[in-house]
Amino acid sequence: MGITSYPSYKEGQTSYSLGTEGILGVTNATVFTNSSGYIQQALLSGVVESNEKRQSLGKLLEQKYGSPAAGYLSDGIGKARWLFREGTTIELRNTTFDVSLAYVDERPRVQSRSGKIDVEALSRKNQ
User: Fold this and answer.
1) Phi/psi at 63 (nearest 5 deg)?
2) What region does 26 belong to: left with phi over 0, alpha with psi -120 to 50, or beta?
3) What is the pLDDT of residues 39-57, one digit of tens each?
């Protein structure tokens, strides 16, 4: 699988090709970052004509994350959403050939100054 990036003209958005076969037929990835450079959203998409690949994608997510919190999966195909305590959401849409899988971080990190580090206090603590 040859991953290649497309030229990006939007700040905070980078798109990639996942090759002709992709990952279970999903051939495009777009990553959105906030102003601090942390990932806010990753979107995988593509036209997946193979029912077997679409089913495999849904079954893989269901096996890894359990039953979805919202939506449905019927033999790996459907619209489903998994919600996690730390604010992450994964959303799968594969009811048609146009498949998308979105990872969203509702609370992406932000760069901040942590203050000063007291090196002398740390060295005394380690003694």
Assistant:
1) -70, -40
2) beta
3) 899 999 999 999 999 999 9
